[in-house]
Amino acid sequence: MNIVIITGASSGIGREFALQMDDYFENIDEFWLVARNRDRLNSVAGKLRHNARIFALDMTDGRKLEDLEEALFRHRAVVRMLINCAGYGIMGDFGGQDAGLELGMVRLNCEALTDMTRRVIPYMRQGSRIIQMASSAAFLPQPGFAVYAATKAYVLYFSRALGEELKESGIYVTSVCPGPVDTPFFDIAEATGSTLAVKKYAMVSPEKVVRLALKDSYYMRPVSVCGFVMKAFRGLTKAVPHGLLLKAVDRMKRKG
To answer: Strands of 2-7's sheet, edge to edge?
Structure first.
């Protein structure tokens, strides 16, 4: 049975991956949708032509991931695509944030993504794909967004290295690094802080991000960056010392 696994599938970019892939991927038998909210997962599943299997679970609970891995074995599944979208961010200075929320970011954005990837790879075959949701925040340390940016830097570098390791097996990894995306992400992130207003001008739709990510995955590109502004930002972080960029960001913050 050929399947696609999408984590964080109940909303935002994960939901958009399910909707777009449903239109174009005819050789898939089932979509396996993973998130905590069962009702939202059922809502997404109801919009799909493909059969969808629901896994309403907390990815930071290793025992729940064992159940998913057991289901892969039981159904003799071949994972054609793993798309890891589950994650969240909290804005605000590190010392002023709830420790549980900050540690939760590390557990979900890094540990759970790594655990899921490790469990799924044995069920992939030549031509399978992995898409990992990183962020343009991975390109530069982010004061006021420190833990989130660090977790996404982990995702980016882990994905680049993993892609090299799996290349001989014919399994290709793409790390997706969008800037601000018009999803419920900021409803959570800005509950404890606010982002630079300039970032809002770089906002893109989830439809555009997902469309490009699928295209870049098809062409086996290791990194997918959506939009001219974020591509220019990535180039800037490569060309200019990070210390100078952080000073510029600090000045922008002081000026509001």
So the answer is: 51-56, 30-35, 2-7, 78-84, 129-133, 172-176, 223-224
